[in-house]
Amino acid sequence: MLRLPREEDAPAIFEACQDPEIPRWTNVPSPYTEDNAWSFVRGAQRGEGHEMSLVIAGAVDDSLIGAIGLRQPAPGVGDVGYWLAAPARGRGLTTRALRLLCAWGFEELALARIQLHTLPGNVASERVAERAGFTREGLLRSFTEMKGKRVDITMFSLLPGER
User: At what angle do helices 93-109 and 123-131 cross, to 10 degrees?
Assistant: First the structure.
């Protein structure tokens, strides 16, 4: 299930982001503080910026197991990013969440393209992208700045009708 973050999610977000794999592969700050978690929740609730940040929640107890977001860097284009808490990995939950968010982006926002960036070597995120129907487009060298340094990214894309 995807939903907006709630205040009671902040402790679980903080705990999940202590896993070094999350900041290793994402823009999540390291070290990740309780203030970071509260800022994420409050920003998502206010709808700050051009991004929708959602919680991936368990179907049984509605507890937070991860996060996923969609932003629009240009008209008709969506960028997605995600992370999942370690205990929830390996069960296809991120793939399902990504499919749901992309379907919404195409249907409600009329996006022409949704793209996804992974850092080279992030095999788990690449598998999620491919299972959700994304096409690997290639390596973009020195594409963006992340935590103070330029990094390469692997670009994936999904177009309407490919899901």
Answer: 50
